[in-house]
């Protein structure tokens, strides 16, 4: 299982977990794993990093930020954890779980922004 703490999830670990999960269920064949990474996992992970960089930049501009980047990472990691099931779970189920998580767990501005931005990217990738 992926890290859901305030530690940044590594790209290699994320790809490995997602591919292993998809192969284990049989929804993705071994010859499809590169496509899974290229078409789904890489764009989502890229957005994860991008949104964290944006939020970190904003937090650095505040004189007394009320939240740390670690807390934002802590809120985004469960979203990334849910996307590791791409290729082994119906996309609508993944999106619903992400939306429910955001409503339940993300309450302050930076976490909401980061989570919703990542969720939008996940939805775009799953619908393409």
Strand content: under 5%
- Structural class from helices and strands? mainly alpha
User: What's the story with the biggest beta sheet?
Assistant: none
Query: First CA to last CA: what distance?
Result: 27 Å
The residue ranges in which pLDDT falls below 50 over 5 or more consecutive positions are none
Helix content: over 70%
What is the C-alpha radius of gyration, as a whole number of Å? Answer: 15 Å
Oligomer: single chain
For the record, the count of structural domains works out to 1
Shape: elongated
Overall pLDDT metric:
91
Would you count the extended β strands for me?
A: 0
Count of runs of 4 or more consecutive helical residues: 5
Q: What's the order of the H and E elements?
A: HHHHH
Outline the structure in words.
The chain is mostly helical. The radius of gyration is 15 Å and the shape is elongated. 73% of the residues lie in helices and 0% in strands. It is built from 5 helices and no strands. The mean pLDDT is 91. It has one domain.
């Amino acid at each position: 299982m992926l890290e859901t703490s305030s530690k940044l999830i590594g790209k290699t670990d994320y790809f490995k977990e997602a591919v292993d999960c998809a192969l284990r269920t049989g929804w993705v064949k071994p010859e499809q794993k590169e496509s899974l990474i290229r078409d789904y996992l890489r764009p989502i992970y890229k957005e994860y990093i991008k949104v964290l960089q944006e939020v970190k930049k904003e937090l650095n501009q505040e004189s007394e930020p009320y939240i740390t980047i670690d807390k934002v990472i802590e809120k985004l990691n469960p979203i990334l954890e849910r996307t590791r099931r791409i290729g082994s779970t119906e996309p609508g189920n993944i999106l619903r779980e992400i939306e429910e998580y955001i409503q339940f767990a993300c309450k302050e501005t930076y976490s909401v922004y980061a989570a919703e931005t990542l969720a939008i990217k996940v939805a775009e990738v799953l619908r393409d």
